[in-house]
Specification:
Blueprint (H helix, E strand, L loop, with lengths): L7 H11 L6 H6 L6 H26 L2 H17 L12 H20 L4 H14 L8 H11 L2 H8 L4
Helix pairs in contact: 1-4, 1-8, 3-5, 3-8, 6-7
Length: 164
């Protein structure tokens, strides 16, 4: 193990620390997106889902299989512990969110298997948010910019390079 290497627990802490955990109405306004508090909470859930998808993809790409499950559990336990407090999601239940996230994860995984880039996956997430009336059609470009800023895909891979 190199001097700079991290344990799986340290990696989980670093990944969660790198992940944006909430979007306020004011932050959305800074991106030119008008939203109610409820819409901001729903957008937070979608952004969280996209972040978790990329975190788990990075885990699969960089972490030996024998550590993947433990690392994944640590991350989900950390998110669950902050559910509704550090992760502002309104009245959404953790178990409901987790089931919905599994569906998102499968959908995003199919897109990646088809060769789509992270930006194309974000575009799909933006389209879904528009379909669910979380953002207006005219705000989709702004939402894509927000997703680029709030879903640090490259950071997740870099963080896991030194886990051993």
């Amino acid at each position: 193990m190199s001097v700079n290497s991290m344990t799986p627990r340290q990696a989980a802490v670093a990944l969660v620390a790198a992940m944006p955990t909430g979007l306020s109405v004011q932050q959305l306004e800074e991106y030119g997106i008008e939203a109610t508090t409820e819409q901001a909470q729903a957008i937070t859930q979608e952004v969280l889902s996209l972040n978790l998808f990329w975190i788990f993809a990075a885990i699969e790409a960089h972490i030996p299989q024998k550590y993947q499950s433990a690392l994944s559990e640590l991350i989900l336990d950390t998110i669950e512990a902050g559910w509704g407090t550090t992760v502002p999601v309104g009245s959404a239940a953790w178990t409901t969110y987790l089931n919905e996230w599994q569906e998102c994860r499968r959908r995003y995984h199919r897109l990646v298997e088809e060769g789509m880039s992270p930006l194309a996956v974000s575009a799909e997430a933006a389209a879904l948010m528009e379909e669910n009336r979380l953002v207006k059609e005219a705000e989709r470009r702004n939402l894509l910019t927000l997703l680029i800023d709030f879903v640090p895909v490259d950071t997740y891979g870099r963080l896991l390079e030194d886990v051993g």
